[in-house]
Amino acid sequence: MMPDISKRSHKTLRILRKMLMPRTFFLMIALLGQMIILTGVISRFNQYFAQFYAFSLFLSLVVFLWVMNSQINPAYKIAWIIPILLFPIFGGLFYLFLGRSRMSRKVSQRMKAYEMATMKALMRQRSKSEDYLRQIEDSRQDAAIQARYINHYAGYPLYPEQYNQYLDAGEVKFEKLLEELEKAERYIFMEYFIIEEGLMWNRILEILKKKADAGVDVRLIYDDVGCLFTLPHGYDKKMEEMGIKCCIFNPLVPVLSLRQNNRDHRKITVIDGTVAFTGGINLADEYINKIEKFGHWKDTAILMKGESVWSFTVMFLSMWDYLRDVSENFEQFKPRQIPSKDQSREKETTSKGYIQPFADSPLDQEPVSETVYLNLIYRAQKYVYITTPYLILANEMVTALCAAAKGGVDVRIITPHKWDKRLVHAVTRTFYKALIQSGVKIYEYTPGFMHSKTFVVDDHYAVVGTINMDYRSLYLHFECGVWMFDTECIAEMKNDFTETLKVCQRVTMEEYRERKWYKVLTGSILRIFAPML
C-alpha cells in the first residue's frame, strides 16, 4: 500500500509541480540570464559608479517631487515616498517601473480609441438611460444620483426591469454556466483573471470545443499574471488549435515593464448577447470547492438576461479589439430575437427594478468603483452589508464607513478567517481597530475563505462584481460590477449575508487588543506599504 501523505505534503508537491511548469521554468531561466547580464554590465561600468550614483539621486529627487505634486491617493504617495527616501539609488527607478498606476501613453491612447468605440456602441442605451433616470428621480432621488454618476462617468447605461438571478455559491454558478453554455448558438465570450486546468475548466472547455466545432464564435481572454501558475506556457496557441480564439492580457515578460502593474481582474461570460455572468468566481476548482486550499470557499455571482447583457457584450469586445488590434462593428453582435424553441428563456419573468452593469479602467483618473462604493455608504440610512476578501482601505473609505456607523447606520463587513495571502490578511486586520471603535461590526468567515465582493444597502441597493476593497482593485486593475436598485435579487443577497453571519466570528475590541505584540508591529509596518500589496 502507498503510505499516507499529509495535506502539507500534498500542498508542497502542488507548489513544486507548478514551479516546474515549462512556462515558469522559462521565466526563471530568463530572469537568471538577465541577472548574469546585469552583473556583467555593473562590473564593466564600475568605473562610472559616481556618475550613475549622481544620476540616480537626481532621478529619485525628480520622482519624489512628481509623486508629491501628483493627484494620486495620499496613502499611495506615502507608500512610495518612504522607499524612495530610504533607497535613493534605486527608489526612483522602482517607482517608474512598478509604482505608476497608468499604462504608457502609447498604450493608453490606443486603448482609449477602443473605449470610444464602447461609448459609441452604448450611445443609444445611454440616451434611453436619461429617460429612466427621470422616471425614478421623483420617487427616489438618491437612486437617480447614483445611477446618473455611472451613466455619465463610467459611460454605462441604466436598464429597467431586467431578469437577474443572484448566485450564492461557486457551485451554483458552475451549474448555471454549463446550462447556458449548452444553449449557445452564435457566440460565447469569456474573460477571466484565473483559469486552472481541473474539473471545472475541463468541463467548460469540453463544451467550448464542441460549440466551436459547430460554428459558434468562441473567444477567451485570460490574464497572464493571474494564470502564471495555473496554465502552461503557450496555452493560447492550444486554444486556437481547438478553434477557440484566445487572447492573453498583458503577457508577462521577464523584464521590468510599465504595463505589469495593471491586470485584467474581470470575470465575464457573455452568451449570444442574451445571457451574461459576472462576480468573484474564477474558473478553478477551489471556487466550486472541489479542492480545498483555504477551507470552504465562499463566493458569489450574478446571472443576467435581457437588454443589460449588451453592456457586458460591449465591455468584452472593447478589450478583445484592443488585444487583437482590430476594429469590429459591434452592432453585428446585437442579440437576435430569442428562438421560440427555447421555452426556458421565454418563461422567465422580469423583476421590477433597475440594473446597471459598469466597468472601471485604470487608464483614466476617475475612480469609478470607489465612487460607486462611497455613494452607497454615504447615502445609506439603515444598513450597509459588505463582503470582501481584502480590506485595505484608503482614508476616504475608512472615513465613510466610520461616519456611517457613528450616524447610526448598521455597518457590517465579512472578511476571511483563513487567508490566501498572509501579508495582505495581516494588513486587512490593521484596519479593524478604527472601524470597530466607530461602531462598524467586523466578522470573519470561520469555515474558510471569503472571496465574495458584494454590497447590500437598505433593501434598495446592491452591487455584485469583481471589485475588492483594496488599492489594486480600486486604482490599478480593470474591473466590472453590477449596480442594482429595487431588483428582486437584493432580498436574496441580504438573506445570504445574514445566513453567512451564522458561521462567522465577530471580531471584538478585546480580541483585537489580545494580539501578540510582534503581529501588531508587523501589521503596522506593512500597513505603510499597503497600496503596493
UniProtKB/TrEMBL annotation:
Gene Ontology cellular component list? plasma membrane
**Enzyme Commission code:** 2.7.8.-
Q: Key word RNA-binding present in the record? A: no
Q: Pfam families from the xrefs?
A: PLDc_2, PLDc_N
The reply to whether Iron-sulfur figures as a keyword in the UniProt entry is: no
State where it is primarily located.
membrane
The portions of this protein that span the membrane are: 20-42, 48-67, 79-98
Q: What InterPro entries does the entry give?
A: Cardiolipin_synthase, CLS_N, PLD-like_dom, PLipase_D/transphosphatidylase
Q: Segment Disordered: which positions? A: 334-362
Question: What are the recorded Gene Ontology BP terms?
Answer: cardiolipin biosynthetic process
SUPFAM superfamilies noted in UniProt: Phospholipase D/nuclease
Q: How does it sit in the membrane?
A: Multi-pass membrane protein
Matching Gene3D superfamilies, A to Z? Endonuclease Chain A
PLD phosphodiesterase domain mapped to chain residues: 260-287, 446-473
- Report the GO molecular function annotations: cardiolipin synthase activity
**Which PANTHER family does the record associate with it?**
CARDIOLIPIN SYNTHASE, PHOSPHOLIPASE D
Which top EC class is given?
transferase
Q: Where in the cell is it found?
A: Cell membrane
Q: Please state what the protein is called.
A: Cardiolipin synthase
